[in-house]
Amino acid sequence: MDPQDRSGGRNPGQNDETPHHPKVVLVTGACRFLGGYLTARLAQNQSIDHVIAVDAIAPSKDLLRRMGRAEFVRADIRNPFIAKVIRNGDVDTVVHAAAASYAPRSGGKAALKELNVMGAIQLFAACQKAPSVRRVVLKSTSEVYGSSAHDPVLFTEDSSSRRPPGEGFARDSSDIEGYARGLARRRPDITLTILRLANMIGPAMDTALSRYLAGPVVPTIAGRDARLQLLHEQDALGALERATMAGKAGTFNVGASGIIMMSQAIRRAGRVPMPLPRFALAAVDSLVRATRYTELDREQLDYMSYGRVMDTTRMRNELGYSPRWSTAEAFDDYVRGRGMTPIIDPRWVRSMESRAVSAAQRWGR
To answer: How buried is 274 (Cβ within 10 angstroms: 0-12 exposed, 13-18 middle, 19+ buried)?
Structure first.
């Protein structure tokens, strides 16, 4: 398999026949937010006969209750046992939502790569050997595009980063996409859907971005104001559910409409920005904590400097999905849902911004 194969769009060897609804769906990462809630949604769909939820850890009682009629199987996808689960369950659709964006406290980045990449290799090998599998949906990320001062205004699915991601979640995700496309080449009867999700945010989802913006003082990179395109957690679930049911082959950017600047996000949350030189930012304790005791890598610092915005035309026109929340609405729902106490009242900030704009317009006349 070629982890550096980054072609977007339709997968090789796949046809355009109208797909049937899935009958037996297996979801990996079922004890994570997206995997767990997606399992619950699919279990409520009466057109699906059986939903199998897989994770290496046992779900909480609340999560297990939420999964309803879904069957939970405790299995590590790095173990060949996953092939037996797929074969014995006569699984026709696999949703791989298990890739983690932060390293475990023990093992660091090496353990993260082991979890992400080796797990994907074993899972896709199992899919390849199972004649029943006809559809694979991969939850990927916009981080495969990277962030730089030379980025296009909008990344399309056919875009590539100026340089391959060097490490961490971005590199893992790029490699996993390559392995998935390798599966599609060897099994052209399998429909492969890759969803590159924008940075997610919402009241319930815990991400490095949500933790970073939750602090009373937000360190920023002096002289930079990143463009942020976000995706509400519920829209991420909606896109995964749509991809699972639709069976549309291809790679799709998934993000909300509109953007906000990092400075706007900080003001809307009522936080206090603290501009720092880039070299100093890497050493800030609050950011180290925000990334769960792992060092900030180059990709994260680049994102905080420049942000990233994707073209989502293919998502709307081909996948047939449109997010309910705009970027600004998703961010505001995160602020409301977390009950964040503003350090600076956002209403006062917006009032001052409005007065400044009015004054500028008067002077312009």
So the answer is: middle
Q: Where are the beta strands (DSSP E) in 24-70?
A: 24-28, 50-55
Contacts for 349 with CB less than 8 Å, ≥ 6 apart: 267, 270
Q: Phi/psi class of residue 71: alpha, beta or left (left: φ > 0; alpha: ψ in -120 to 50)?
A: beta
Rounded-to-integer distance, Cα 204 and Cα 233, Å: 8
Length of the chain: 365
212 is written with which tokens?
Answer: 């970073």
Give which of 61, 179, 184, 44 is closest to 121, Cα–Cα: 179
Q: What is the pLDDT along the chain (365 residues), one digit of tens a residue?
A: 444 443 444 444 344 444 578 999 999 999 999 999 999 999 999 999 999 999 999 999 999 999 999 999 999 999 999 999 999 999 999 999 988 776 555 556 667 777 889 999 999 999 999 999 999 999 999 999 999 888 999 999 998 756 666 677 888 999 999 999 999 999 999 999 999 999 999 998 888 788 888 778 888 888 899 999 999 999 999 999 999 999 999 999 999 999 999 999 998 888 888 888 877 776 665 555 555 444 566 777 888 889 999 999 999 999 999 999 999 999 999 999 887 766 665 565 556 556 655 666 666 55
CB-CB contact of 312 with 242 (8 Å): no
Mutual angle of helices 119-129 and 168-186, in 10-degree steps: 10
Q: Minimal CA–CA distance to 299: which of 178, 159, 145?
A: 145
Closest CA to 345 of 242, 272, 251: 272
